[in-house]
Every structure is written in structure tokens, then in C-alpha cells.
Amino acid sequence: MFEIGTTLRDARVRKDISLQEAEDQTKIRVKYIQAMENEDFEILPGGTYVKGFLRTYAEYLGLDYQLVLDEYNERYGSGEHREHIIQSVNPVKIEPPSGSIGESYDSGLRSLRSQKNRNYLFVAALAISIIAVLAYLGWGNQSSNDPTIITTTEVGEEADAPAETAPERIVTQPQTPPPPPPELETVALTSTVGDNWVELRRGDATGEIIWGGTLSSGDSMSFTKADLAVPRIWMQVGSANGLEVTVNGIPQDVPQVVGASYMISAEGMNGQR
């Protein structure tokens, strides 16, 4: 058994590589590199990320990454760390005081309720009065604002004949309904270089897993609207080296960042770190 963190740190020091240089070369943040060298694995996003980071960092330092991963699996099992547990807090029930003080307390409550009921009745009566006045004014104006139809007669032999008025035509313009919003129809993944670990979840980073696994070089996976069943999904990658992504048939720009997360919708893919 060997110390994972000490082995990684000694290899970096022997090669005279600073933490910032290691971040620039591996695209792994300095805080994650320090976490691996200190074996503070709970700082990293999750067990799968830990393995991806360890493999990338060990290869970068010229170490046998499989030995590092085997040691990690032996000591930490699946690598899944503690999740935060949110405990619900029961509301505190306030009991009214007892004795004469309690009677005053109950009397005060009844007085407040009675005052509230009177306020509600006053507001309702005021609203009804306002509606009645507005309705009266509207009906009165309607009778006095009827349109006046002016007819003309043709000058000539039939000038004395009563003119016929053409019926009024009301032309309504058809309203064009707004176009439906775009939908997430297809998502396709292709690995062109090396192995790429990918995980897809519905809705957000903690949603239901649609698919997760490693795409070897030349492997492809495609998902249809029926597979996705949501307007957006969340994609997490261990390493984006050689990973190609298309959304609704449109190729997306995938930054070469280790351990990145992306939100995918009909509009495309947005990167999140």
C-alpha cells in the first residue's frame, strides 16, 4: 500500500512543476490538484470525477495511472463520498399562556379576528360600489355614443329617390399564432480520440440518469426526443478530449476541460464549471 497524495506530490516536485503549470497543462483546477495531493477527495465533485482526475493527473506526471486507481479503489471502494443531508425542521407550536393571562390572550385573538372580518366586509362593500358606478357610467355612455350613419344620394334624375345604404362590413384580420418553442429532438455523442466518460441526467445535475458510461475511440451514442423526455438535460464529462457533441443535428463547441458540466437544450449547449 502506498500513499496516493504523497506519490503525486513527489512526482510533481521531482519534475519541478508548479501547481499553476499543472493546471494549465491538465485543465484541472489548482484546488482539485491540491485535494488529490492531500487526499482530500471529498472536495472533488464525486467518485467518478475523482477517478477521472487521478487518471489524467497520474498520466501527466508519468506515473502508472492504473496502480493509482487500484489503490484508490482498494481504500475508498466506489469512491462515492458523503452527500449533504438536509434535515427538515419541525415548526414550533406556540401554546397560549394559561390562567388570567391566557384569557386575555384569547380575548385579544378574538378581537383581532373580529377586526379583520370587519375590514374584509368593508373592502368587499367598497369594491361592489365601485363596480356598480363603473357599470352605470358605461351603460350611459353607450347610449349617447351610438355612431351616426351619413348617407349620400347621387345628383341627377334620381336625386329625389331615397338612397340605399350598404350594410356595414366588419373585417377581422386573422391572428397568426406564435410559433411553438423549439424542442430538444436529438443529442449525439462521438468519441474520436481515446476514452471519454460521459453521464447524462434529466433536468439538472442531480436529476435522473439517462445514460452513463465510457465511449472508446470510434464509439457513438445517440438519443432521441423519446429517450430524453425533457426540454433540457445535464451532461457531465470526465475528459472532453476528442468528444464531439451534436444537438438537434448542429455540432457544438466542446472545450477541452477535464471534469466540466454542460446544460443542453434546444438552443444548444452551455458550459458550466
Description:
The chain is α+β, with helices and mostly antiparallel strands. Among the domains are: 4-76, 434 Repressor (Amino-terminal Domain) (Orthogonal Bundle), CATH 1.10.260; 187-272. Helices cover 38% and strands 17% of the residues. The chain has seven helices and nine strands; from the N terminus they run ααααααββββαβββββ. It has a five-stranded antiparallel beta sheet, with no helix packed on it. The chain has a four-stranded antiparallel beta sheet with strand order 4-1-6-7. Helix 4 (47-60) packs antiparallel against helix 5 (65-76). It is elongated and about 100 Å long. The model is unreliable at 79-97 and 148-159 (pLDDT under 50).
Shape: elongated
Low-confidence stretches: 79-97, 148-159
How many helical stretches?
7
What structural class should be given to the helix and strand makeup? Answer: alpha+beta
